[in-house]
TrEMBL record:
Residues 22-152 form the Tripartite ATP-independent periplasmic transporters DctQ component domain. The keyword Transmembrane applies. It comes from the Bacteria. GO terms for biological process: C4-dicarboxylate transport. This is TRAP transporter small permease protein. Belongs to the TRAP transporter small permease family. InterPro entries: DctQ, TRAP_DctQ. It is a multi-pass membrane protein. The chain crosses the membrane at residues 12-33, 45-62, 83-105, 125-144. Coiled coil: none annotated. The keyword Cell inner membrane applies.
């Protein structure tokens, strides 16, 4: 899309997750209608893909400066204070995302070491959990890009 900063890998990942969720759900509905039963794996995969979709979409929203926030205060402040507020917002976001990345990575590593299996399909649990620190680290990168663009004026906060 012209005029917007890009987050292409996250856009593709989010689109792929949404397509797979749709196909799984459609297949499950058709199977339930025809046979009266459903696929056992659909909920486990759908929840996992929904988390991937959420984090990928949040990363795209960060890069495009589309997250919900109250811009009134930012626009009312003089440029010097506005920059300080943008840096404070970025620091808060980096703190939260850094904690998610760290603890998500720690959890995925522990699940790998313990060889935990998922309850539905018996797949290694870390296959699902490793995406949490990976995508939150992508969000950290996109937040840094967004903050730099906002501070240099390449990305406007005007509605």
């Amino acid at each position: 899309m012209k005029g917007f900063p890009d987050a292409r890998p996250e856009r593709w990942l989010g689109a792929l997750a949404l397509i797979i969720i749709s196909l799984i759900s459609l297949g499950n509905v058709i199977t339930r209608y025809l046979t009266g039963g459903s696929f056992s794996f659909t909920e486990e995969f759908s929840v996992f893909l929904l988390v991937v979709l959420t984090f990928a979409g949040a990363s795209v929203a960060l890069r495009r400066n589309r997250h919900i926030r109250i811009g009134f205060l930012e626009r009312a402040l003089p440029p010097k204070y506005r920059s300080a507020l943008i840096l404070f917002q970025a620091l808060c976001g980096l703190t939260v995302l850094g904690l998610i990345t760290w603890y998500g990575g720690k959890l995925a590593w522990q699940e790998y070491q313990w060889e935990s299996l998922s309850p539905g399909l018996g797949l290694p649990q870390w296959w699902y959990l490793v995406w949490l620190p990976v995508l939150s680290a992508a969000m950290v990168w996109r937040l840094c890009q967004q903050t730099a663009d906002r501070l240099t004026g390449r990305l406007t906060d005007e509605p």
